[in-house]
Design brief:
Blueprint: H1 3-23, E1 28-39, E2 49-60, E3 63-71, E4 77-90, E5 96-106, E6 118-129, E7 132-139, E8 147-155
Antiparallel strand pairs: 1-2, 1-8, 2-3, 3-4, 4-5, 5-6, 6-7, 7-8
């Protein structure tokens, strides 16, 4: 991994960790079975059932970390790791809703960086109710067509 990326990750972990301690927030761990994607370019043969396994560790209401692996829309194995900044929070009818950005690294797309790692910034909306939750992410891509991804998740800790 590039040294600048390592430094950025270390800085984010330090900042997020100090925020979590300041708020005395119980860490939450969510697991997911991958995602379902819907591509706006319907004339392509993209895979939309992107099965895999992933984890989300939320250390404060505004800060979480993501990691996982799935079969991507090009039918290739992808891995990811990142930081989820859950900037805006509200609670309609007892449902925890947050909106923000995901800053992540992905690999496994042969049409992107030769299958190697590449950075992304994605807008994300999350909803959580008790042990159940969902993440909705917009994936902009001017070359291959944009998509939205829905990820269901379950609280395990």
């Amino acid at each position: 991994m590039h040294p600048m990326i390592k430094q950025a990750v270390a800085l984010l972990l330090t900042a997020a960790g100090s925020t979590a301690l300041a708020q005395d927030y119980p860490t939450k761990v969510w697991l997911n079975p991958g995602a379902y994607s819907h591509h706006f370019k319907r004339d392509q043969d993209y895979r939309e059932d992107n099965y895999g396994v992933g984890a989300e560790v939320v250390i404060a209401p505004q800060h979480g970390f993501l990691a996982g692996s799935f079969i991507n829309s090009n039918r290739e194995r992808s891995r990811y790791g990142g930081y989820h900044w859950r900037a805006w929070q509200w609670k309609p009818s007892g449902i925890n809703v947050s909106a923000g950005l995901v800053f992540a690294l992905f690999d496994g797309y042969s049409n992107q960086n030769g299958g190697g790692w590449f950075p992304v910034v994605l807008p994300a909306l999350s909803a959580e109710y008790g042990p159940y939750g969902a993440n909705l992410t917009f994936i902009p891509n001017s070359k291959n067509g944009s998509a939205v991804a829905l990820q269901v998740k379950m609280l395990v800790w």
